[in-house]
Amino acid sequence: MSDSTNHSRRSFLKSTAIVAIFASIPTSVKAFYQDVKDFILPKKSILPIKISVNKKVHEIKTDSRSTLLDVLRENLNLTGTKKGCDHGQCGACTVHIDGERALSCLTLAAMVPGKEVTTIEGLSTGDQLHPMQEAFIECDGFQCGYCTPGQIMSAVACVKEGHTNSVEEIKEFMSGNLCRCGAYNGIVESIQKVAAL
Fold first, then answer.
1. pLDDT by residue (tens digit) across 51-68?
2. Judging by DSSP bridges, how do beta strands 46-53 and 116-118 pair with one another?
3. I want to staple 66 with a disulfide (CB 3.0 to 4.6 A). Which of 8, 16, 38, 62 is the partner?
4. Whether residue 43 has pLDDT greater than 90
5. For the chain, percent helix, then strand, then coil, each to nearest 5?
6. What single-letter DSSP state applies at residue 56?
7. Segment 70-103, tens digit of pLDDT
8. Cα-atom radius of gyration of the chain, to the nearest Å?
């Protein structure tokens, strides 16, 4: 008999055994498991929320568990804010909330009503780029560009917060934003250029 036949027979027997085990679990145990699951995991609820993004108010209905990042990208079609790690480790999703940088993947949309959210799309004024956007272009502060929106939002905050006294200080306050291409020298140069204005 060939190996592929044995493998198929073995797989069939394993699958049948697993189905039989699940089928033999008493209904009361399944109901208990569902009760525990319902107790631990909050049920989905849809909330009407009003959020101000880039000085425009949006009234949307969204899952109470939705992150600001998902609402920006999926509900408001503001895809400039990038979804990188989705765990607050790469900084690609950085936005400003009331002028301060924030990771939108770690912020629930339900937390921002009454606050002003600024994304990379709201940084420029009409056709006029923000000085930091221009500096990134002039200093080659990006390569593939995926992290660039988050880098620029953090860079603007870095200058605003006054953490541009040295290259080391800039690197320290930009350390939450990762660039897989390694364009860090251009990013630091961009920040220094804007800080000198």
1. 999 999 999 999 989 999
2. parallel
3. 62
4. no
5. 50, 15, 35
6. E
7. 999 999 999 999 999 999 999 999 999 999 999 9
8. 24
Q: List the one residue out of 161, 154, 144 whose CA is nearest residue 188.
A: 154
SS3 of residue 123 by DSSP: coil
- Joined together, the tokens standing for residue 57 give 């108010």
Q: What percent of the chain has pLDDT over 70?
A: 96
Distance between CA atoms of residues 151 and 28, nearest Å: 53
Residue 7 predicted with pLDDT over 80 = no
At 91 the three-state DSSP class reads coil
Q: What's the CA gap between 4 and 21, in Å, rounded?
A: 26
Tell me the C-alpha to C-alpha distance, in Å, between residue 116 and each of 5, 37, 65. 63, 36, 20
How many residues make up the chain in this entry?
197
Q: Is 94 helix (H, G, I), strand (E, B) or coil?
A: strand
With CA atoms as reference, report the closest residue to 123 among 69, 160, 87, 175.
160
- Closest residue by Cα to residue 104 from 120, 92, 121: 92
Report the C-alpha gap between 157 and 100 in whole angstroms: 7
What does the block give as tokens for 179? 């660039």
Spatial separation of the C-alpha atoms in residues 135 and 138, rounded to whole Å: 5
Tokens matching residue 66? 């939705």
